Amino acid sequence: MVKIFITTVFINPADDRLRAGWRLLVHFFILAASLVAFGVIVSPLFIWAERQGFSFLFINSLVALGGITISVILARRFVDQRSFVSLGLKINWKALGDLFFGFALTAAMMGLIYAIEWGAGWLTFDGFAWEFQNSGRVAREVLIMLAIYISVGWQEELVARGYWLQNLAEGLTRSGRSSSRQGLDWAVFISSLFFSLAHYANPGFAWAPLLGLLVSGYFLAYAYIRTRSLWLPIGLHIGWNFFEGTVFGFQVSGTESYRLVLQTVKGPTLWTGGAFGPEAGLVLIPALLLGTLSIWWYTRSR
After folding, report:
1. DSSP classification of residue 85
2. Which residue, among 144, 143, 36, 155, has the nearest Cα to 87 in the 3D structure?
3. Are 243 and 106 in contact (CB under 8 A)?
4. Would the CA dihedral through 159, 163, 168, 173 be positive or negative?
5. Which of 167, 152, 154, 155 is nearest to 25 (CA)?
6. CA 218: distance to chain centroid?
7. Residue of 27, 15, 11 whose CA lies nearest to 163
8. How far apart are CA 253 and CA 203, in angstroms?
9. Is it the case that residue 189 has pLDDT exceeding 60?
10. What does the alpha-carbon distance between residue 206 and residue 219 come to, in Å, rounded to a whole number?
11. Beta strands 123-128 and 261-265, pairing class
């Protein structure tokens, strides 16, 4: 009886391993332990970086990068009993193309948002960073922000569209309660909701940012589904943050960034997202439509 109970509740007899829900729970604890352990082990490096003038955001992103990557590697190998690469991380020329296409596409998407807000009179241009700072300082700050956003894009997509989405889709489908399509639909919704709620500590987080990030999660999930690879959503995530904050000077999910374009947003919060940034405003919608159509076109042969 005990064996039957364990098999029914914890083990999926179809592949003789933990059910998806338990795998996600185990990963949560591995993640917490990895973040603590990684932070302690490399703390001398972060003390040095802080003395060199690197921001807390930079240091924190490195801790998260190491902790999250290690946690997914361990969970994928010992809990999922699958390879790390099978999450959609095969490295080849197609992966490189996906990465750079995603990065370039977000430049057009954010440029569209800037153009809409400027054309509507919701934004005033105040100048460029290099007009007020020397070129060496500008280059250093841009490279630091790019490194931060590479780290953030990698770690958030590795978890949200990698570990969460794929385990949920597999678990919901193999439970027998959902068809393959229904299981995927629910997995996209749940993983996107978790992705949105993961930003709850960001300044200004409320209902509008929650919905905006939820829709953004769907957009990134669409990029994964069209390619069955994480490289396109990773490129999109990196580029979105970089062009949104560092290049065009908007808030990035409520957080400040070094800005090349100095501008002031003064339009209606409903449209612009206010202090949280475009993710919380209706101006996000045309950009996501442009991005979705572009992804469909780019992946039409797949």
Report:
1. G
2. 155
3. yes
4. positive
5. 167
6. 11
7. 27
8. 8
9. yes
10. 20
11. antiparallel
For 207-256, how does the pLDDT look when each residue is reduced to its tens digit (9 = 90+)?
Answer: 999 999 999 999 999 999 999 999 999 999 999 999 999 999 999 999 98
pTM of the entire structure? 0.92
Dihedral sign (CA 285, 289, 294, 300):
positive
- Find out whether 284 and 113 touch, Cβ atoms under 8 Å: yes
Residues 6+ apart with CB under 8 A from 105: 235, 236, 239, 291, 294, 295, 298
Write the pLDDT tens digit of every residue in 108-124.
999 999 999 999 999 99
The per-residue pLDDT for range 138-176, each reduced to its tens digit, is 999 999 999 999 999 999 999 999 999 999 999 888 655
Residue 65 structure tokens: 């990068």
Phi and psi of 264, rounded to 5°? -130, 125
Lookup result for tokens 């339009």: 267
For residue 183, the one-letter residue type is G
CA distances to 119, 244, 247 from 240, rounded to whole Å, are 21, 6, 10
In the prediction, which pLDDT does 290 show?
Answer: 98
Instruction: Give the list of residues 6+ apart from residue 286 with CB closer than 8 angstroms, or none.
Output: 112, 113, 116
